[in-house]
Design goal:
CATH class of the largest domain: Mainly Beta
Strand content: 15-25%
Largest sheet: 5 strands, antiparallel
Order of helices and strands: EEEEEEEEEHHHHHHHHH
CATH architecture of the largest domain: Sandwich
Strand order of the largest sheet: 1-8-3-6-9
Helix content: 40-55%
CATH topology of the largest domain: Jelly Rolls
Number of domains: 2
Length: about 300
């Protein structure tokens, strides 16, 4: 037999990355703004922020992602009430299809959220330094990086952009193929989101595995498998991390002291709250508050 190869077409290619950040800002944080000759996107993981893109003002909430084209001036400010968590990434891409993202504010779906998480996770093993330093101007390679980490970051980013284009382009557009998802994947995603919403609604309580299963009509083993697959944690550990994430937001919003936060989130004591907080974040609540304040007070 005489085989003939097919040269694969690439419609979107990324070869340079300038920054990868995950920020946990205080409620009064303000970044003065900048412009540069490469692309940047900002995605709200939690909370809410105000963004100016040239002359346009946007209020972005959880799941919103905004793209800044090259040489577009942009700034970001907390709204003074809600302490936001943000993913910010900048990169070069000369592919013509990037014009799709100009002046766009989109909403990410669960698969895209997972891709963002994978980019953040890989970057921790590939680059040195902190992901929460907004004034970092250069990514420094780690001395012992994870194998092929840089390539995976590139692939995850390209996949993220392609998936957004596929989902938002009309069927009449020539570069819009159909997104195919299995029924099981869709059902699992919907169930995971349902239980996430249930946990959010009961964040101030001490939920048990039995309560979660009973309220969401799911078996114990199925629940644990779902959460291990989707988040990497068991259901109760995931719930504990949700509590600590909310505690971090409340600390950054300055409205409550540590005892009030512990009480509001259903911790049995301030000491148990502090132990859980340090176990999950590596810092005590006081250390976390000081580190975030130092970040916010960074000179321009």
């Amino acid at each position: 037999m005489s085989y003939k190869s097919v040269q694969l077409k690439e419609v979107l290619t990324i070869r340079e990355i300038y920054s990868i950040h995950y920020f946990e800002y205080m409620c009064d944080f303000s970044f003065p703004g900048e412009s540069h000759d490469f692309w940047e996107f900002l995605c709200v993981d939690k909370g809410e922020v105000n963004v100016f893109a040239d002359e346009k003002f946007h209020v972005l909430k959880k799941g919103d992602i905004i793209f800044h084209k090259p040489n577009e001036f942009h700034d970001v400010k907390s709204n003074g009430l809600i302490a936001p968590n943000l993913v910010v990434m900048s990169f070069s891409c000369a592919s013509p299809v990037m014009s799709f993202f100009e002046e766009k504010v989109l909403k990410i779906s669960e698969p895209e959220r997972i891709l963002l998480a994978q980019i953040i996770q890989e970057s921790k093993h590939v680059f040195e330094g902190r992901l929460d330093d907004p004034y970092q101007e250069e990514l420094i390679r780690s001395e012992n990086p994870r194998f092929a980490g840089e390539q995976l970051i590139c692939l995850y980013l390209e996949q993220l952009l392609i998936q957004l284009i596929r989902r938002y382009m009309t069927r009449t557009d020539p570069i819009h193929p159909t997104i195919v998802k299995s029924i099981k994947q869709k059902a699992d995603g919907e169930l995971f989101s349902q239980i996430q919403e249930y946990m959010d609604a009961h964040i101030c309580e001490n939920l048990s595995i039995e309560q979660i299963c009973r309220s969401n009509s799911i078996g114990r083993s199925q629940l644990q498998k779902l959460f291990r697959t989707r988040s990497g944690y068991g259901a109760i550990e995931y719930f504990s991390r949700l509590k600590v994430d909310l505690a971090k937001q409340m600390i950054r919003e300055h409205h409550y002291n540590f005892t009030q936060i512990a009480d509001a989130l259903g911790f049995s004591s301030i000491h148990y709250f502090s132990r859980q907080f340090k176990r999950i974040t590596g810092m005590t609540p006081s250390e976390y508050a000081s580190s975030i304040k130092a970040l916010s007070d960074h000179p321009n």
